[in-house]
Specification:
By secondary structure, this protein is an alpha/beta fold. Helix content is about 45%, strand content about 15%. It is built from 19 helices and 14 strands. The chain has a 7-stranded parallel sheet with strand order 3-2-1-4-5-6-7, sandwiched between helices. It has a 7-stranded parallel sheet with strand order 10-11-9-8-12-13-14, sandwiched between helices. β2, α4 and β3 form a beta-alpha-beta unit. α3 packs parallel to α4, α5 packs across α6 and α10 runs parallel beside α14. The longest helix has 17 residues.
Length: about 425
């Protein structure tokens, strides 16, 4: 009864979703494309036999990339159906497609849209990345006999408490064929939420190799920068303004290093550029760099491009971890470590608690009290080349020590399918 009531509410909310998508499309045109897919309506003929991977956004899609590669090794001829919820996720996912693969939007979680999605594609298996639990989608998969797993699964204490307060969610977790947890703590919380945890395999993001050409380009630019580059990686709303206010008040901090800000959300690039100017600084946007960033200009650099984080991490001597200086849970620090870029992280890393703790133990990350402390530590590290080099080597060692989740997860999924894909 409760599930039907929820389905009724999501059905009623469809006009609101359409308006939201139209608003988002004004800033990100991708949201205005293939809109009917979100409601389970397709122009292509129905098909079957897909390995369906749902990666909602950019980070999940990057994690899915290494899993997809491992699955292709084990399942020759695999036909991939890749679904997303965000425009950045879909743009990144397009890189993973081969001939015969398909991409679509995740269906809105109504009984009708999810049933039409399953009738259209009839997947062999559903692989939801990290945290994606949708009651009607999972229920209709159960009815259709499609096994669904939660891969690279994580669940924070805060999210567990939320799940336990929503009666719809424990049955959805229980209906999963398996959950493959990142950590033992995640596994314990997933079990409390109702999931069948079939393995603790680590974080897929450790298996993602940074783009070698981007990394080399970044390091070349770093050597010509004239001063140490400090990256504010995946910064979130409120954090840039706080940093800029600190730099505005402290000319020494502003000039000691070259500051580079890369916002988490591309629709905020223009707003952050305006913030930089409002605080009295010139801004040099990546989109206008040409062959190299403008060394010696005194401007704050703004990374306003997609898919170039390896370049930015290669360019930086160290990175401030976005989302960790406001109570937002932090962003993924694994890519920074894989690029040999040590991290200064604030107090709020609950979305990646174990990875943050392990990085700190390994010397790949340094915990700071707040942004003011981070700016001070960045200045200290800027003056201490041996310490920076030691931290960079620790970051590389930390990343290398935790690889292997992709192989373990792909083996488990292949086993779930039996001897391979059913005819």
């Amino acid at each position: 009864m409760l599930l039907r009531f929820y389905g009724w509410l999501t059905w009623l909310a469809q006009p609101l979703l359409r308006r939201k998508l139209a608003r988002r499309a004004a800033a990100e045109p991708g949201y205005g494309q293939w809109t009917e897919e979100r409601f389970g309506r397709y122009t292509r003929p129905a098909s079957s036999g897909w390995v369906w991977v749902h990666a909602v956004s950019l980070g999940e899609t990057r994690a899915a990339a290494v899993l997809v590669a491992a699955l292709r090794e084990r399942l020759p001829g695999m036909r991939l159906l890749l679904t997303h919820g965000t425009a950045t996720g879909r743009a990144e996912g397009a890189r993973l497609l081969r001939d015969g693969d398909l991409q679509a939007w995740q269906p809105w979680d109504t009984p009708g849209a999810t049933a039409r999605f399953l009738a259209q594609f009839r997947p062999q298996v559903g692989i939801l990345m990290e945290t994606e639990i949708w009651p009607w989608l999972i229920e209709n998969c159960r009815r259709a006999g499609v096994p669904v797993v939660l891969a690279n699964a994580r669940l924070s204490e805060k999210s567990l408490q939320g799940a336990q307060r929503v009666p719809l969610l424990p049955p959805a977790y229980a209906a999963l064929a398996a959950a493959y947890a990142q950590t033992e703590d995640d596994a314990a919380r997933l079990r409390q939420a109702g999931a069948r945890v079939a393995g603790v395999f680590g974080n897929l993001k450790f298996d993602a190799a940074p783009d070698a050409a981007q990394l080399a380009q970044g390091r070349q630019w770093r050597s010509a920068a004239g001063k140490p580059v400090v990256l504010f990686a995946s910064s979130r709303e409120g954090e840039e303004a706080a940093l800029l206010a600190l730099l505005q008040a402290d000319a020494a901090a502003a000039g000691a290093v070259q500051w580079l800000i890369v916002p988490r959300h591309p629709q905020r690039f223009d707003a952050v550029a305006d913030l930089v100017r409002t605080h009295g600084f010139a801004v040099a946007r990546r989109s206008g760099w040409g062959d190299a960033p403008p060394a010696g200009s005194g401007a704050i650099w703004l990374g306003d491009s997609l898919g170039e984080m390896a370049l930015y991490y290669g360019l930086a001597e160290m990175a401030l971890l976005g989302g960790s200086f406001e109570p937002l849970g932090g962003q993924n620090l694994i890519e920074a470590a894989a690029c040999g870029c040590p991290v200064l992280m604030g107090p709020h890393t609950f979305n990646f608690a174990e990875a943050a703790a392990l990085a700190e133990q390994a010397g790949a990350a340094l915990r700071v009290a707040d942004l003011r402390d981070a700016v001070g530590q960045a200045q200290r590290l800027a003056r201490d080349l041996p310490l920076r080099e030691k931290a960079a080597q620790a970051a590389l060692g930390f990343a290398a020590a935790h690889r292997g989740a992709a192989a373990r997860t792909a083996d488990a999924i292949t086993s779930l399918l039996g001897l391979g894909l059913r005819p």
